[in-house]
Amino acid sequence: MKQALLKELLKLNAAEMKQLQNQHFESDFDEKSLLNTQQYSIPVFTADFFKNHDLYISKHNRFADYPQHTHTFLEMNYIVKGQATEIVDGEELILHEGDILILDVGTTHAIQALGRNDLLLNIIFKNQINFSFDNLRNLGENQNIQSEFLLANSQYSHYLIYRAKHTEDHVQTMADQIIEEYFNPGAFF
């Protein structure tokens, strides 16, 4: 990732300033993006979150625990810098710089407070084609390079982890290019 974008993403935003001050979670989502919360015991994010886009990338706010939630779309968490601890379906996962965590539709997770030098980006994909791990497993029957990549960690049923130390550099390079293009449209086209 280009240093200018990295520097910009590491700047404190308004929610982070509040969280740093009071060590308490500040909501960073529009209530319209949640299913009726009275019906569910935890927040469930919906497609309204995308605001008319098929892909949404955001910096995860630091300095306070992000509460347990789930969603109706596939989510990818990319640790650009530092580390993060996530609780996924009750299991603690420690992610390090360059690691990528892909969460299936409906997977419950929470993220412990990130520090000043940690940077986690959320990359979420609008679920217009019922995109889930079950669909990916079906694609895997064709034995192509994409299915091999996506299902490399098939022992997990609700999430996949790509550890930076076990994956080739091009995985992070590809993620960085997607992020650069999202925040600076036209950078690669």
Q: Kindly state the number of beta strands.
A: 10
Poorly predicted ranges: none
* Biggest beta sheet summary: 5 strands, mixed
Principal-axes geometry comes out as: globular
Radius of gyration: 16 Å
The CA-CA distance between the termini, in Å, is 16 Å
* Helical/strand content category: alpha+beta
Averaged pLDDT, please?
A: 78
Main sheet: strand order = 1-3-8-5-6
Q: Beta-sheet strand percentage? A: 25-35%
Order of helices and strands: HHEEEEEEEEEHHEH
Number of helices: 5
Binned, the helix content reads: 10-25%
Notable traits:
10 strands, alpha+beta, single chain, five-stranded antiparallel sheet, 189 residues
Helices and strands, with pairings:
Blueprint: H1 3-10, H2 14-22, E1 44-45, E2 55-59, E3 66-71, E4 74-81, E5 83-88, E6 91-96, E7 100-103, E8 109-111, E9 119-125, H3 133-140, H4 145-150, E10 159-162, H5 169-183
Parallel strand pairs: 1-3
Antiparallel strand pairs: 2-9, 3-8, 4-7, 4-9, 5-6, 5-8, 7-10
